[in-house]
Amino acid sequence: MEKEKKKSKTKSEKSEPSKAAKLGKKMKISTRGRIFEGYVIKKFSDRVVLEFERTVYIPKYERFLKKKTRIHAKLPQNIHVEEGDLVKARECRPLSKIIHFIVVKKIKSAEAEK
Questions:
Q1: Residues 51, 84: contact at Cβ < 8 Å?
Q2: pTM given for the model
Q3: Could you tell me which residues come within 8 angstroms of residue 23 by beta carbon, excluding any fewer than 6 positions away?
Q4: In this model, does residue 92 exceed pLDDT 60?
Q5: Which residue has the higher pLDDT, 36 or 6?
Q6: How far apart are CA 109 and CA 103, in angstroms?
Q7: Rounded to 5 degrees, what are φ and ψ at 21?
């Protein structure tokens, strides 16, 4: 009986770490492709919404038009941003249905612009 108890203890010691411990580990996300700079217009717990302007040429009128683009980007825990900050986001693998970018660095604070 003592041997059986010892075996059961070793099994519990070898059990896999909990999901919380796995999520606590630092995620390594490789980046690729396009890089955008935009202003943070919305902030959530783990992501931000960036907005930036781009110019589009209209051949019929031979003019340029300004368009705004919104991008959802993952916000790493080591980067702290607020609404109005200028940040750089880089393309990565799809992390969810709408998140395909990750914030790389904070360029300018909203407070510095005022």
A1: no
A2: 0.70
A3: none
A4: yes
A5: 36
A6: 14
A7: -70, -35
72 within 8 A of 102, measured Cβ to Cβ: no
Q: Looking at the 3D structure of the chain, how many domains does it have? A: 1
Return contacts of 53-56, CB within 8 angstroms, 24+ apart. Answer: none
User: Does residue 12 lie in a domain region?
Assistant: no
Residue-number span of the structural domain to which 51 is assigned: 27-113
Indicate whether 101 belongs to any domain.
Answer: yes
Please check whether residue 61 lies inside any domain of the structure.
yes
pLDDT tens-digit series, residues 45-90: 999 999 999 999 999 999 999 999 999 999 999 999 999 999 999 9
The tokens of 95 are what? 């992390």
Any idea what the CATH number is for the domain that residue 72 is in?
Answer: 2.40.50.1000
CB 29 within 8 A of CB 15: no
Query: Which residue has tokens 């998140």?
Result: 99
Q: How many helices (H) and strands (E) does the chain have?
A: 3, 5
- pLDDT one-digit tens code per residue, 35-49: 999 999 999 999 999
